[in-house]
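Question thread 4412

I'm putting together a teaching handout and wanted feedback from people who do this every day. The idea is simple: show students a protein as raw sequence, then show them the structure tokens that encode its fold, then repeat with a second protein so they can compare. Below is the first pair exactly as I plan to print it.
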Amino acid sequence: MRILLPPSEAKAVGGDGPTLREAGFGDGPLAPVRQSVLTAVAAHCRDDPAAAAVALKLPPGRGADDLARNVAVLDAPTTAALDRFTGVVYLALDPVTLPPAARSVADDAIMIVSGGFGLLGATEPVPDHRIGMAVTVPGPGPLTPLWRGQLRALVPTVFAGGHLVVDLRSSDYAAVLTPTGPLRRSAVVVRVLTERRVGRKWVRRVVSYSSKHVKGQLTRELILAEGAGAPIETVEDVEKVAVNAGFTVEPRSTPGAGTALDVILREPPVGRRPSAGGKR
């Protein structure tokens, strides 16, 4: 099993690993592109912080801190990617509390799509930074098409080899590293939808926080299952783990790509509050 996750804006500070300038940008074909993107971001944030804050879509309330992190991105201490990201997905996954066998599975299985790094393994060293995917950087240009082109060669490596890929990415990050043809059948795309009754209709939509939280929970359950000796090899295996974790799951056919899964969270009807003790 492999699990594709988005990164998160929230990150742990500090670290005890070597800087990127000391250790380099990885051993694979993405290393020179990572260096180009991160060097350009650092220079832009240093030389024209106002323009960089707009280009990188940094929130006004913490823009100065994010700019400083980006300026120092080549010289800041690093830590493993799975421990660097601390947003909602990763809080629910809670990798620090995984048993040793499950943490070993997580380190092997989890891959994180990143605006600054393209694609990260769980154990790769990452400094604190703030670089989204849907942004434009002077020099490298728009990052989505840049990484889409760079990651195209890695599609067979990620989506082939006899393992199932559980795709839990958000839309910005699903736009890169996209399997085509028969390789699409090696992946199961999981959506999380919140369902609420409005009038006489049930309406489904994506609620960002709920979606991220459930994806983190599901990731943890899948990792724990493999760590306990129950390999995740099919869509049915993913569905079984999700149902055992208490989720309502609906398989969904996708033309040319096999089966996807929807996790459904039901909310109380609009205008109705749960009554105390189950009575009204």
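The second pair follows. I'd like the answer to focus on this one:
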Amino acid sequence: MKKETRLTHLDEKGMPKMVDVSPKNNTVRIASAHAKVSMSAEAFQLAVGKGGKKGDALGTAKIAGIMAAKKTSELIPLCHPLNIESCDIAFKPDENESSITIISTVKISGKTGVEMESLTSASVAALTVYDMLKAVDKSIEISEIYLISKEGGKSGTYKRK
């Protein structure tokens, strides 16, 4: 695969533009993103035990992450509005670290990728965990937001090393 050597969201004058995807073929496109939320042991127990002041932190974060994937084009100016066909959010609690890893996987059949949707989804899910638990721990840290993998489209498959 040939790697892109120019910024596709800039025109020949260096001004922002939306990429023209009309010539592209519809293909299945999948992207997964990662986020990590680290917190106090007390907040962690509330997160995994569904006993937070606001209720089920992870259940609420899952809904927020799915909604975020569907609304990415409203948040990131040059993203195309996409018909999200699937969004799955998984939580991997680590009691030893008092952390929760969030993995968001988004899938469509379309002309453009869903990397931004999976990244937005994981980020908003992490922010929601913070919001649900901040009454107990304002020092919660959100980190390690990155793309894990993507499939489909002209550039093919990417897997983070």
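Top answer:
Good format. For the second protein you could add a caption like this: The chain has one domain: 27-152. Helices lie at 41-49, 57-70, 72-75, 115-133.
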